[in-house]
Amino acid sequence: MSDSKHTGAPVSARQTADPQAKIALGWAHTARFLTTASKLDQLPQHELPEIAFVGRSNAGKSTAINTLTQKRQLAYASKTPGRTQHINLFELGPKAQADAVFADLPGYGYAAVERSAKLRWQEVMANYLEVRRSLSGVVLLADPRHGIKDLDHQLLQFVAPRVSTGQVKLLLVLTKADKLNRKEQGQALRDAQEALREFVTDESDVGITLFSALNKTGLDDLATLLYGWTHPAAGEPAAGATPPEASPT
């Protein structure tokens, strides 16, 4: 697919000077609702690369998706965290010929949700991450002020085998970076690096980046990376991600 198919789309009020980021943001802006499902067998089968967004209920997942796509209400954020219990799929690319899919998985870990619901969704998410054939990338969002929690570790265990074999790429997005000073950001990156190394030995398909929906920190990087994942001919697959050994700029 040529880059020209995406360059005419809006790229948010904060214009970027990076041509590749502008293309990637224009592509992300094409995201549109495809379907919703409460069970894996309700999800459509397709041959497009599918990128899943996962994270705890308070990690800012919906806000990050809406910021990335420059659409305020694309990803639904429930007023009661943890109550949204569906997998929502969004198509990207030209309407006549979509080229990728975003999957917004339910937030997990909210204390007020009944234990039975938690266990059911833990099973659904585990199965999705382990067997979804079209899955090509996972974006795990975490609030660095709270660190990588036990449920995040469980999710990493589910997807680690596919990451280690190169079937699936993994990006850890540390949200709400605007809440941290530079020193705290550096420590958050180091802590995240250690957490990932418990599960993935080959870091070639793994990245970590800081992100803020408020001041758009990491937005260009996130868009460029995901565009590279789904359009490998457009540039290096890992472009835009902060590698685990790096510190914030």
What would you say this structure looks like, in words?
The chain is an alpha/beta fold and 249 residues long. It has a single domain, classed as Rossmann fold, CATH 3.40.50.300. Helix content is 32%, strand content 17%. It has six helices and seven strands; from the N terminus they run αββαββαβαβαβα. The chain has helices spanning 19-28, 61-69, 115-131, 150-164, 182-197, 219-230, and strands spanning 32-37, 50-55, 87-92, 100-104, 135-142, 169-174, 206-210. A seven-stranded mixed beta sheet has the order 1-3-4-2-5-6-7, sandwiched between helices. A hairpin with a 7-residue loop joins strand 3 and strand 4 (100-104). Helix 1 crosses helix 6 (219-230) and helix 3 packs parallel to helix 4. The longest helix has 17 residues, at 115-131. It is globular and about 45 Å long. It starts with 18 loop residues before the first helix and ends in a 19-residue tail after the last helix.
